[in-house]
Every structure is written in structure tokens, then in C-alpha cells.
Design brief:
With 366 residues, the chain is of the alpha/beta class. It contains 14 helices and 12 strands. It binds fructose -6-phosphate.
Length: 366
């Protein structure tokens, strides 16, 4: 059942070229300029005309929501708030009739996310669900939605569900932006093509497995890790840190790279591994200076960079080169090495990666 892999988590990481394709199948055809999400048809105009969009989720799904915030705001120009479902539901949130709430949940059973949408619904919001499990409670409680079609996720640490969530949310954002006219035809078609090529590029990122295992061996005994990214790679830093802490029990923190100066920089010494997600995008020059700041304090830098980068390899201790793509969908590629890094470190530390202590696959109590 693990398809020859040692753990479900590894199987699910390696399934991603396939699960992302499954998620796009029948929905996206870049050659024909075709993008359709059946579950959106009835409600697309409500999203196009929305004054704002709220996203509610927990954990890794919240990270996917944060990637979506950046994508939606850039392409649709609709203001987006991403909320932890547990905070949102208890603070008497401001919800108006016609507000659009997107709920993201792999299991579709997370208690706080379910309660958050019930609350929003009672105040007249339109609920759009992005779930993996068909027929789950959140899927049923939503007015409309799109399934991620990633297939069953058994490993407690979420991997393929995350990339499928980001894929669905990107398709929703592009559809809304296209309908709204807030994206040019050229850019729209370029992004459809880039999205369609993601599975092949994820396959290339997976081919770095051995190299990542080698890096994992060097850092497996670290007591702390810092993950830093900017822009679209900021939520990837959060996700990388979460993956490491939940399965290897190493303390890790994800931060927007520029926030480092406001506190975490005090932690940096020769013992501190810092993972930079530093692919070639609009914040590249800025993150290069952040890498220099860490090196100046003797931190150990592991950098995820775009293939062909010549500058960061001169500064970093270890580099992981991933294929280039549009910066808005880079998280689909840049997260892969971080999933593998946490997996190998956890295995080397003898941890139960598929069932980490204290964690359950679906959190049905608050
Ligand atoms: C992390 C992880 C959890 C879940 C969170 C939400 O790897 O698995 O953080 O992402 O419990 O679960 P769902 O998406 O089922 O609502």
C-alpha cells in the first residue's frame, strides 16, 4: 500500500507530479486557453464583485491560504484576509452579507474551520470550500467549492494536499481575475502555461532527493532551525518550519526574511542552520542581503535557489537548485525540497514520520 516507499509521507511527496496533474485534469488546458472549475460556475460573479475575501483554515492549510492571499491580491486586486479559524470564530468577527469566505481543509473535518464557516454562513457570507476529502463536513457545509483531488493523504504531515490546495486556489484566482479584467490576456495565458508545466518541474525537484538526504545528514542533530523567505516564498518558509518541527521534533521557526532583524537575528551563531527560500523573483536582491547578514554572523546557510543562480552559491554553505517558474506559483516547487529535508531528518533521528507523537490526521475537537 506504500507503493514500495518506506513511509506514506515519502510516497505522498513523490506522488505530487501526479496529484497536481489530477487536480488540474479536465479543468485546465493552456493550449486552448481553457480554465473551468465546475463548482465555481454559480458563484463566480459573487467573488468577482466581492469587496473582500476571507480565508479560514488551520496549520498547513492556513499556509496554503497565505500563498493564496498573495496570488488573489496580485491578480484580482480584491483585498484578502487569512485567518486562523480558531481565532476568527471567537472574536466576534466582522462579516457582512455577501462577503466571500474560502475555507481550506484537507480532511474537511477540522472542528475550528467547520465552526468558522458555520458562523460566517449565519451572517450571510458565501462559503467556498477547498477540501480534499469528498463529502466531508466542510465540503457539505459550503455553498460551493472545488475539490483538490490529491487522493487520500495518510501521512499525518500534509504534503500533497498543500500543493493541490495551492493549485486549486491559483486556478480560482486566475478565473476571477480573468472575469474581472484585472489581469491582461497575455499574463493570463502565460500563467496557465506555467501552471500546466508545474508537474514536470516538481518531478525535477524530486530528483534532488539524494542531495537533500546528504544535507539532512549534516544537520540532523541541530537543535534549532530558521526558515526565511520573502514574498511568495514567505508562506513556504512557514510551511518548511512546520514540516520539520512536527515530524523531527526539532524546534524550527519560519519568518519573513526581513523580520529577522527585528529579533531572530539574535539567535544566529555557527550552530544555527538557516534555510533560505531564495528563488529568482522580485525580492531576490533583498534576500541576497539577508543571506549576507546571516553569513556575517556565521550561521549555516542552506539555500533553495533557481537553477543557474551564480551569486547565492558563492555565499551559501549548501544550495538546492530548483527549476524556474513564475514567482506566483513558485511555492509549488520551492516547498518540495523542504518536505524532503524534514522527511530525511526525521527518519535519521528515528522518528515515526507517518504518525508523529501528539498529532492526529484530522483535528475534530477544538
Ligand atoms: C500539518 C498538518 C496540520 C493540518 C491542520 C489542518 O502537516 O497536517 O497542520 O494542516 O490540522 O487540517 P485540515 O487541512 O484537514 O483542515
Amino acid at each position: 500500500e506504500k507503493g514500495g516507499y518506506e513511509h506514506f509521507m515519502l510516497k505522498e511527496i513523490f506522488e505530487q507530479p501526479r496529484s497536481i496533474s489530477d487536480c488540474m485534469r479536465g479543468r485546465l488546458d493552456a493550449n486552448r486557453g481553457h480554465l473551468v472549475l465546475g463548482g465555481l460556475r454559480e458563484y463566480i460573479n459573487k467573488i468577482v464583485n466581492a469587496d473582500r475575501i476571507l480565508i479560514v483554515a488551520c496549520g498547513t492549510s492556513w499556509h496554503a491560504g497565505t500563498v493564496a492571499e498573495y496570488i488573489f491580491e496580485e491578480f484580482t486586486r480584491i483585498p484578502v484576509e487569512v485567518e486562523y479559524a480558531s481565532e476568527f470564530r471567537y472574536r466576534n468577527p466582522i462579516i457582512k452579507e455577501g462577503d466571500v469566505v474560502i475555507a481550506i481543509s484537507q480532511s474537511g473535518e477540522t472542528a475550528d474551520t467547520l465552526a468558522a464557516i458555520e458562523l460566517a454562513k449565519s451572517k450571510g457570507a458565501i462559503i467556498f470550500g477547498v477540501c480534499n476529502v469528498v463529502g466531508s463536513s466542510i465540503a457539505r457545509a459550503s455553498h460551493a467549492g472545488s475539490y483538490t483531488h490529491a487522493g487520500p493523504e495518510i501521512g499525518v504531515a500534509s504534503t500533497k494536499a498543500f500543493t493541490a490546495q495551492v493549485t486549486v486556489l491559483t486556478m480560482v484566482a486566475l478565473l476571477v481575475a480573468h472575469r474581472k479584467g484585472s489581469i491582461t490576456e497575455a499574463r493570463y495565458h502565460e500563467l496557465l502555461t506555467d501552471l500546466e508545466q508545474i508537474p514536470v518541474k516538481v518531478e525535477k525537484a524530486l530528483a534532488l532527493n539524494k542531495q537533500i538526504e546528504y544535507i539532512a545528514d549534516i544537520f540532523k542533530d541541530a537543535r534549532n532551525f530558521l526558515y526565511l523567505g520573502r514574498g511568495y516564498n514567505f508562506p513556504v518558509a512557514l510551511e518548511g518550519a512546520l514540516k520539520l518541527k512536527e515530524i523531527s521534533y526539532i524546534h524550527a521557526e519560519g519568518y519573513p526574511a526581513a523580520e529577522m532583524k527585528h529579533g531572530p537575528i539574535a539567535l544566529i551563531d555557527e550552530e544555527m542552520p538557516v534555510v533560505f527560500i531564495a528563488t529568482h523573483d522580485s525580492s531576490y536582491e533583498k534576500i541576497v542581503s539577508n543571506i549576507q547578514e546571516v553569513k556575517a554572523r556565521k550561521g549555516k546557510v542552506i539555500a533553495v535557489v533557481t537553477e543557474g543562480d551564480t551569486l547565492i552559491p558563492k555565499m551559501a554553505d549548501f544550495i538546492i537548485e530548483v527549476p524556474a517558474t513564475n514567482e506566483a506559483i513558485m511555492p509549488l516547487i520551492s516547498v518540495i525540497p523542504l518536505q524532503l529535508l524534514s522527511y530525511h531528518i526525521a527518519v535519521m533521528r528515528g522518528c515515526n514520520v507517518d504518525q508523529p507523537r501528539n498529532l492526529a490526521k484530522s483535528v475534530t475537537v477544538e
